[in-house]
Amino acid sequence: MTAGQSGRQKRTEPTTSTRRAVLQAAGAGSAMGALAMLFSSSAAANDADPHGAAAADDIFDVDRTSEAVYPQSVASGGPTPSGAIVWTRIDPAAYEGDQPVGLQVTPAPDRETANTDADFSTAETRHFRVPSSAFGPDSDYTLNVDLDGELDADTFYFYRFVYDGDASPVGRLRTLPDPEADPDRLKLACASCNNYLHGYFGGFAHIAREDADYLLHLGDFVYEYGGAGNQPDRDIQLPSGNDVAHTLADFRTIHRTYRADEHMQAALARHTLVMTWDDHEIVNNRWWNYETGAPNTASHPYGDDPEKMRRLYVEGIEALAEYVPFRVEYDRTAEDLHERFRLYRSLEFGQLAELFMTDERLYRSPPPEDEFGQRDIAAPPARNVDDPDRTMLGGDQREWFLDGVTESAATWKVWGNSVLNAALKATNAGEQGSFFVNYDAWDGYEHERQLIMGEFQRAARGRDGALNLITLTGDMHAYVAAYAKTDYRDPEHQQPLPGAEADRVGVEFMSPGITSDNLGAQTPTPPDLEEDAAELLVESQNPHIEWFNWSRYGYTTVEFTDDAAVYTAYGVDRTVDGADAPKRLLRSYRVPEGEVQLEELRGGPLSTLPETLPGAGDLSGGVDR
């Protein structure tokens, strides 16, 4: 069992092997075997075990602070109550094969102190030696160090690496609270869908300044595409010469490019990352073909070739595991690939909240086809949309999810969900006359959605109140505030008709794209006009949706207390390459504890923010248009 995760399900302890063995398996054995073996090392982030060292060890002698030696800066992720994974990458030009890495970790005096004010000379500073064998060319010079078991719960720490006299930029991490603790609050900064080619990452610069506890990324951390960018200096040239990743070298180039962005670096250096993937980390709109035992997609030249798709998965996941500090479980004794490893997991923030991060790509069966055999475009539900065998989560993950949420003792049950759960219809005319927008989302998996929401509703009734379920979603490059329901099909169960509220199970909040194109990029209409028209159309056909904005870019925050959950949506101009990219407050909603109710706190876009609003930043640049 990976530390820091819910202990409801007993599993074999993770085991490890070297990255070199993974790459040898990828080259010499089957791609399926390499995929399984991959998660025994790099994805488990256990390949670099730190060893305690004395402060006087010359490995910690700092001659200079050098961003050049650490071109992708630092990051942390995979928090537990006793640690987290810390990450960096050494520039190949500075690499010396036999030189170990020093790691210093010291408690932050408070949550406000800047990273640059960290003091590593105190008696509380911990010193670790990481052997030279832990990184090198085989891992593209990346280094993941797992500090699980080394630190105190519910604590901010500063950390830095020292390599041959060169100190890295300082990062900050936060451990999880003890499961029995009772925190006053939990604040998540939420992001998704940051396509490097589509704009600048000013949203991440603002996230770096948020007074947040963790950074929650809901998928599409990188995109598989190369080519010309929409803004100056946003091109990516892939080694293969293609415009979509085909090789490990392509995926590594993409990760290196994204992680060289100073605004993304600032957010990852300031906040510990909790993430799930969606599709673009590997390939667009992917699913698992259970007949061939391989991933499939209609969006890549390899889509119909099982062996090439397995290989693409191996290489895409290898690069992801090298460059992103995230934690998964691995059971090398399991016979079935889907049982050997799992990305889905839960994190307990004391008694206040439990976060369930689901994997909605590895287990999903094909989405419904339309009348023309297309899977990427939704159509009227005439092709077995209610097929009980169609799954997004797979049986084991679904049972884990249902048991975890319904048995959790936390005040708030939070679902980290990659794709929109609430129905989204272009026309709403009952079961036979509705036109759904996207079968890649939960609309394509109606039977499973109803099963899950039905179980949650029964659990809420058994408690004589609300389940306090908050779903946090990415994927669509839009802002959404909506009700999660058991039935979206029957117009008689929809507002404003009597009894509509009885089908409400929880609330769903979507985070927009940091940069990824949305409706606003497809039309010449000014955003202020376009967003009003789109919201009116969507809400007229989807009465469970309280707010819908498909015209702006940015991020959101969600803050949990014993009394309420508060969602705040910010728009950030993706055309400005600066830490002061114009930012505006768009909407804010409150969900009272014990109720399934959206209370709007601020209506409509505001041109200015009050000085007291957390994370407002510098608005001297004006409002984006």
Describe this structure in words.
This protein is an alpha+beta fold and 625 residues long. 19% of the residues lie in helices and 24% in strands. It contains 11 helices and 30 strands. Strands 1, 2, 5, 6, 8, 9 and 10 form a 7-stranded mixed beta sheet that branches. Strands 13-12-11-27-28-29-30 form a 7-stranded mixed beta sheet, with helices on one face. Strands 18-19-20-23-25-24-26 form a 7-stranded mixed beta sheet. α3 packs parallel to α5 (262-270) and α8 (395-407) runs parallel beside α9 (446-462). The longest helix is centred in the middle third of the chain and has 18 residues, at 306-323. Residues 1-29, 40-47 and 604-625 have low confidence and may be disordered.
Q: What structural category arises from helix and sheet content?
A: alpha+beta
Termini, distance in Å? 49 Å
Biggest sheet descriptor: 7 strands, mixed
Please compute the radius of gyration using only Cα atoms: 23 Å
Report low-confidence residues grouped into runs of 5 or more: 1-29, 40-47, 604-625
Number of strands: 30
Q: Indicate the percent of residues in helices.
A: 10-25%
Compute the average pLDDT. Answer: 86
Shape: globular
- Kindly estimate the percentage of residues that lie in beta strands according to DSSP: 15-25%
Helical stretch count?
A: 11
